[in-house]
Amino acid sequence: MHQQIFVNLPVKNLEESKAFFAQLGFTFNPQFTDHNAACMIVGDNIYAMLLVEAYFQTFTKKPVADAKRSTEVLLCLSCDSRAQVDELVAKAVTAGGAAPNAPQDHGFMYGHGFEDLDGHVWELVYMEPNASGQG
């Protein structure tokens, strides 16, 4: 069995968050999606569990961070091209997200990112093939 990762993120409005990420091209596994949670398919064996804040709170005794006021995590996804990085950021902004930082071009590596509706930071990076060892 391959290892899987499930990143759990609190969201204020599950339906709005699902619509936001659907506009970016993500899909959801209905088997693990209900009124409290949505299982967003990020890639092979990679999932983001969007959890209504009250439901998220049942998994921890610590207070839930407000991602619009503080950063609790930076999520970074690889992309297939520079164009895909820019396309996803543009889609996120059109869907109601924000792009608070400028793109970063390091020659062999290109990155940009966006904040989703709840303020979670999603970084996107494209690295030139055969770039390992550069930098």
TrEMBL record:
Signal sequence bounds: none
InterPro entries reported for this sequence: Glyas_Bleomycin-R_OHBP_Dase (IPR029068), Glyoxy/Ble-like_N (IPR053863)
Superkingdom: Bacteria
Domain spans labelled Glyoxalase/Bleomycin resistance-like N-terminal: 5-43
UniProt xrefs under PANTHER family: BLR2408 PROTEIN (PTHR36503:SF2), BLR2520 PROTEIN (PTHR36503)
Protein name in UniProt: VOC family protein
Organism: Caldimonas mangrovi
